[in-house]
Amino acid sequence: MQRRHFLQAASASLLPAGAALAQSYPSKPIRLIVPFPAGGATDLFARTLSQKMGEKLGNALVVDNKPGAGGAIGSDLAAKAPADGYTLLLATTSTHSVGPSINPKLPYDTVRDFTPIAHVGNAPSIMLVPNSSPARSVKEWIELARRNPGKFNYASSGNGTVVQLTAELFKSMAGVFVTHIPYKGTALAMPDLMSGKVDLLFDSLPTGLPFVRDGRLRALAVTSLKRSPLVPDLPPVADTLPGFESVTWFGLYGPKGLPAELVARVNTAAAQAITDPEVREKLDKLGIEPTTSTPAQFAAMVAQDAAKWKKIIVERKITND
Asked: How far apart are CA 110 and CA 211, in angstroms?
């Protein structure tokens, strides 16, 4: 027995430092920072993913909600954590694609101060109109707006939010003039949308779809580039406006300098978890499409997404004030 232990120890000592590090990781629970409040879509996604990822890694992922400043508070904590693999961040479009252009005074650089690990999900939105709207398609809605410049309006969950940016991207590509009405959350806009006081809202699938299914609102399209398996009957806006896409992505980051061996371990665990049938079933209910990627693919996707939203933010002079 002693000889076996000696040989095992000797073999371990011959491993490259990185391989040995990856082999022993994680030896304690991992903190998964969610930079948004408990109970929201990002939090529910984190809890669904973390349970299965913990099983794959062999130690628990503990969700730690650190909301505030549009996700900047939690993101800053993750950026300044030790690069030992025991602090991860579940980031979104808001924190890493939109945040830098909306708030140039962020206390961190979204590229320089983080290590990309994995793209794990996308949440498309749906284009909602009142049942009283004469438009039955995206094309018809655009034609109505073009014939009546300034007559129509759209609701958002506030200035500088992805909901507003989605509508502004739509306006830019459709060439229409539509007035913005910000609310403190899309839930507060729903009564006005149903009554016809508001003409348009791009809402997330899980919150908007129930209003469509029970007949209180009409959905014209989905904002993913292609049809979503979550709502296969809805055409994409891109069928009318080629190239139109607006999804909220979810991805895992570590602090800058996270060793490649640990990045690979977490990336593999995330891919295994996200493709688990139980996880996929839960994500369907959240309106999130699971996805996998390499760290490099994830970084490239975020860079492209950030450039797209920066262009809209600058052109439309959008702020979070």
From this structure: 36
